[in-house]
Amino acid sequence: MEKDRFRFKRADLAAYAAVLLLAAAALALTFGLTGREGEFAVIYKNGEELRRVPLSVDQTFSLQGDYSNEVTVKDGRIAVTHSTCPNQDCVRQGWLGDQGGSIICLPNRVEIRVVSSGEADIIIR
Amino acid sequence: MNTTLLARSALLTALALALSYMERFIPLDLLVPLPGVKLGLANIVSMMALYFLSFRQGAAILVARCILGSFFGGGLTSLAMSLTGGLLAFLVMAAAKRAGCLSVYGVSVLGAAAHNLGQVAAASVIMGSIYTFCYLPFLLLVALMTGSLTGMLASWLFRALAASGVDFGA
Predict the structure, then answer these.
(1) β A48-54/A102-105 pair status
(2) Which CA distances in Å does A24 have to A28, A33, B82, B114?
(3) Which of A50, B54, B63, B147 is the most buried (most CB within 10 A)?
(4) Best-predicted range by mean pLDDT among A47-61, A92-106, B50-64, B72-86?
(5) What's the start-to-end Cα distance of chain A, in Å?
(6) What CA–CA distance (Å, rounded) separates B109 from A53?
């Protein structure tokens, strides 16, 4: 086997450039999904909408599933402040207030997504 | 399959399991607060299998590692995540290696990026949400760094292995 396959080559820069390009493309594609301050948080469980909470009302509630997430709304932002899930990714994702952002607790199959009030389905509800 | 190949595959499977278990204790996500961020040290084993054994052995080691790894913690969700990420990374790395113009660095970086892409896609299916893709750009940037690191480790390891004269090939 040629040993030069084990050392950095100039051609490797093409791989770096390809990943950078993919990142830029992904950023551009998802840019429309994110943006300004949101007004509601939509809670999804198993991919289905469970409830909507206004970010203007400070409150704390819990989401039960395989595990339990304690969700806190404060000063227009939302966070999972405590969770019984094993990896605690949801807690580490911290506070979220911008529209399009989401907090995910994969073990509990919960997603919290912040949306603006401009979306039609909120007015209906 | 001969006994030597079986023993080497078992050794690499154990190594991959140990590495993927060990890296849970490296709190990389404190540095980069994104879900699913990790070093991907077990990917070095996949690369080792690709470069020194064969595509088939590498794939078998990967699947064995993912299944056994889910017993040690995680369960079905993490099995689905690690299998999609791991297999996509493995296929991309095999193709990149076969293309012939990249070194272990390029192969490793592409593998890390493919791993993240696979995981985000799996998470998207599990959660029934397209929004998981919002993490992708940032995960890909992290993949550039973790892929470089594992590429460097693989570069050292493979050169040492080649220089040692030990015949690790199948």
Answers:
(1) unpaired
(2) 6, 15, 25, 15
(3) B147
(4) B50-64
(5) 65
(6) 41
Q: Across chain B, what does the average pLDDT equal? A: 89
Strand partners, A44: A49, A111
Q: Which of B97, B113, B126 sits opposite A19 (nearest CB)?
A: B113
For residue A8, what pLDDT band results from cuts at 50, 70 and 90? very high
pLDDT above 90 for B140: yes
Tell me which of A1, A8, A21, A88 to substitute to probe the interface with B (most B C-beta atoms closer than 10 Å): A8
pLDDT higher than threshold 60 for residue A118: no
Question: HSE of A42 in the Cβ direction (CA atoms, 13 Å)?
Answer: 20
Write down the CATH number for the domain with range A40-124. Answer: 2.60.320.10
d(CA B77, CA B126): 8
**Spatial CA neighbour of B41 closest among B98, B115, B120, B140:** B115
Where exactly are the structural domains of chain A?
40-124
Task: Kindly indicate whether the domain formed by B3-164 is annotated with CATH number 3.30.110.40.
Answer: no
Average pLDDT over residues B136-154: 95
Nearest residue of chain A to residue B140 (CA atoms): A23
CB contact under 8 A, A6 and B104: yes
pLDDT band per the 50, 70, 90 thresholds, residue B145: very high
